[in-house]
Amino acid sequence: EDYENALIYHQKAYEVCLKINDRNEIAFSLLNLGSVYKSLKENDKALDYCYGSLKTFKALNVQSGIAMATHIIGTILIEKKALNEAFERFQEALVIYRATGRQEKIGYTLVDIGKVYLGKENYQKAILCGLESLNLGKETGAILLKKNAFQLLYMAHEANNQQKLALEMFEQYILMKDSIMRSENQRELIRHKFEYEYNKKKKLSDAMRKTELQKREIYAKEEKRRQYIIITVVVFSLIVCTVFLLFITKRLRLINRQKNEISEQKNTIEDILFELTDSIHYTKLIRKTICKEI
Asked: Which of 52, 77, 135, 185 allows an S-S link to 82, with CB 3.0 to 4.6 Å?
C-alpha cells in the first residue's frame, strides 16, 4: 500500500480542516494520520496523532470518535508491549461500543482484548473473548471478524496445548482467509471488468468526439469557402454594376450632349432659313416696286 502518498493527502486534508476550523474533521484527520504511522511501524508518532484526535473528540463529546481513537491507541500499545495500558484502552472503547450497540465493533474489540489475555498467558479468557467475537461475527455476517476470531482461538488453543481444537480453529481461519481472498479477487475482477468497459466506452466516446470535431472542422471550412464564394460573387457583381452604371451615365451624358448639339444646329438652320426667307421676301418687294415704276 502507498502509505507515503496517504500521509501526504491526509496531511493536506488536516491543513484544510485547520483553515476552516472544522474541529470534528480535524479529529478524524489526526486519527487517519495516526493510523498511517501505525502501519509504517512509527508507533510514537502514531500515538501522538491518536492522542491528539482523542483529546479533540472528547472536547466535542463525539462518542463514536472517542471509541475509535481509544481502540486504535490500544492496538498501538499492544505493539509496544504495553499490555496493561492497552487493556484499559480496549475496555474504554468496549463500554462505548456496547452502549451504542455497535456489534461488529464490539467483536473486533473483544479480539484485541483476547490478544492482551494471550500476551498475559491467560488463555481461558482469551478463548472466551474469541468465542464471543466469533458469535458476533456470525450474527453480523462479518467474514473478517470471523477470520480474526478463528485466528485468536487457534492461537489460544495452541498455546493452551489443545492441539485438536487448535487445528479445527486453524482450518476455519484458513477457510475464512480464502473466502476473503476470493471476495477480494472477485472485487478485483469486477474492478478490472468495469475498468475495461469504462476504457472501451471512453475510447468509443473519444472516437465519436474526434469524428464530430472533424465533421465540425469540415463544415466550418466548407462554410468559410461558401462565404468566400458569396462575398466574391457579391463584390464582382458590385464591380460589374458600378462599371455598367458608369457606362450608362457616360452614354447618357454623350446622348444629352449630342441632343444639345443637334438642337443648337437646328436653331442655327432655322435662323438661316428665317434670314433667307426674309431676304427672298425683301427681294420680291423690291422687284414689285421696280415693275410698278416702269
From this structure: 77
Q: In sequence order, what DSSP letters do the residues of 15-75 get, joined into one string?
A: HHHHHHT-HHHHHHHHHHHHHHHHHTT-HHHHHHHHHHHHHHHHHHT-HHHHHHHHHHHHH
Amino acid found at 211: T
Query: What is the C-alpha separation between 104 and 108, in angstroms, rounded?
Result: 6
Return the SS3 of 51.
Answer: helix
The C-alpha cell at 244 is: 455598367
pLDDT in tens, 3-24: 888 889 999 999 999 999 999 9
**Per the structure block, which three cell numbers stand in for 92?**
474504554
Model confidence pLDDT, tens digit, residues 152-190? 999 999 999 999 999 999 999 999 888 888 765 555 544
Output the pTM of the full model: 0.61
C-alpha cell at 263: 438642337
Sequence-distant (≥ 6) Cβ neighbours of residue 183 within 8 angstroms: 143
